[in-house]
Sequence to fold (296 residues):
Amino acid sequence: MKPSPALPPVDMETYVPAAITVVRRSSGWPGILLHERHGSSGEVQYPGGIRQHIFYRFLKPLRSDVLVDGGVKSVSYRAGEARFTPAGQPVAFRWSGEVRVLMLGFQPWFFERVAAEIGATAALPGATNALKLAKDHPACALMEQLRCELENPAGASLVAEGLARAIAVLLLRQFEKLPRARAAEAAPPVAVLRAVELMRRRLAAPLTLEELAEVAGLSPFHFARQFKTATGHPPHDYLVRLRVDRAQELIRHHGREWTMAAIAQETGFADQSHMARHFKRVLGVSPREFADAESR
Fold:
């Protein structure tokens, strides 16, 4: 297979192969989508890759040929086993027999944000398509829980987001060599907790390093060092992240009534542009993109 880089990636949300039918799908889950698909023998080619990262959990046994990197690999899946397809990687699939599959699609910004939080990269190789996960892999178990959220119980989108984030972490652990996390202290020092409490109380107001150090009872130098050791972030960056978190809440609950400029002012940013720059840096999406995803 010779992929054509000129072709755009296929969007899982709108494209369904001819041999496949979507029998159930999620609605209103920001950054993720879940389809249960049934079908029969067929084939599909994605010379430009797929726009989303896709995690497949096969509900019935299936034999499939994976065409990737110029080669073909035949893979037999037992019920409950799974496959992961990284976004944007050219690939083709052929399969025979009845198909019953659960497909979790991660929008690139969602998967990349999780990867950044754990120090990983979302750029997995195309060869990942030819690997499979055992049915007792933790990510497969979480997919079954996620499937229950298709019944749309109260709080389904919140539960789905948490499960999808956990699945993304488990997939990155599986397919990447991640650095071992540094052992953390049993609890942040009291000085750090005092500073964080002040940040939360005065989220919309300017705060200097000297003010934070004073409430912590330390010199600015020792406070900044202790704060970064305890939280992993310098004080100012931590404050910005708290403001971004609050902006997310306001967009989620008041996005239709409040302007972005009002949300920026309420969360301590200098203006809408200042909020957008930090929002994009922390979350990987702009405030407007986040609002659009929330409103679907």
Q: What stands out?
A: The two ends are 36 Å apart (CA to CA). The CA atoms of residues 114 and 169 lie 7 Å apart. The longest strand covers residues 32-39. The chain has a mean pLDDT of 88.
